[in-house]
């Protein structure tokens, strides 16, 4: 019963408490709580405590996460998923293998603040920076590697780079609120059916 208790404690680590393990090992319910406490006391039962320690070290070796074991397990999961036609699970397993191998680098940039908090000058400056950064995309001349390099340079150096050419507005906006309400091109010309 002591060996069974030791196995119950180690195999159910975190799922069962000592009382439940003692009860499952065969100790009477009314004395199981006391027996569980005594069996884990090295002064009273040193051999049981030693056996529990040996079992724990065996389990740690058996289930230890090493790079090689992790990669091979993910590979097995991917193969099983492919065999069952579970493409999504297979892709997820392969991505997890890539992350474990260091093939993916996740980068997060957290910025705080709102556009409402910016002054008009700061907002115009930020818009100019965005237009400058994404000018190749906006103009239809996209070389992704150049855009990525430029963004990385800006992130690393801050906004110290000067703009190479003056900005031109994408669209002229009228500031007179009455000019759009005279019916020439207002949104009220679009009628909806009810």
Write up this protein.
Helices cover 56% and strands 0% of the residues. It has nine helices and no strands. The termini are far apart.
The CA-CA distance between the termini, in Å, is 79 Å
Q: Give me the number of helical elements.
A: 9
Rg from C-alpha positions?
33 Å
Bin the helical content.
55-70%
Spell the H/E element sequence. HHHHHHHHH
Q: Quick one: how many beta strands?
A: 0
Quaternary state of the chains: single chain
Return the structural class: mainly alpha
> Any idea what the shape is?
elongated
Strand content: under 5%
Low-confidence stretches at least 5 residues in length (pLDDT < 50)? 179-194
Question: Which features would summarize this protein structure in a list?
Answer:
194 residues, mainly alpha, 9 helices, elongated, disordered C terminus
Summarize the structure.
The protein has 194 residues and is an all-alpha fold.
Strand and helix map with partners:
Layout: H1 2-11, H2 18-25, H3 32-39, H4 46-63, H5 67-83, H6 87-101, H7 120-133, H8 135-139, H9 144-157
Helix pairs in contact: 1-2, 1-4, 2-3, 5-6
């Amino acid at each position: 019963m002591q060996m069974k208790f030791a196995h119950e404690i180690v195999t159910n680590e975190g799922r069962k408490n000592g009382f439940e393990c003692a009860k499952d090992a065969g100790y009477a319910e009314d004395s199981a709580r006391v027996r569980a406490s005594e069996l884990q006391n090295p002064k009273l039962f040193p051999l049981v405590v030693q056996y529990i320690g040996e079992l724990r070290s065996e389990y740690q070796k058996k289930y230890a996460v090493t790079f090689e074991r992790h990669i091979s397990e993910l590979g097995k999961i991917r193969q099983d998923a492919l065999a069952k036609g579970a493409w999504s699970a297979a892709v997820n397993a392969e991505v997890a293998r890539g992350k474990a191998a260091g093939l993916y680098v996740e980068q997060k940039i957290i910025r705080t603040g709102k556009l409402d908090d910016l002054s008009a000058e700061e907002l115009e400056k930020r818009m100019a920076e965005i237009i400058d950064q994404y000018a190749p995309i906006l103009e239809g001349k996209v070389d992704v590697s150049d855009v990525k390099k430029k963004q990385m340079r800006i992130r690393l150096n801050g906004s110290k780079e000067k703009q190479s050419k003056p900005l031109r507005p994408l669209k002229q906006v009228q500031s007179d609120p009455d000019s759009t309400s005279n019916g020439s091109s207002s949104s009220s010309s679009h009628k909806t059916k009810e």
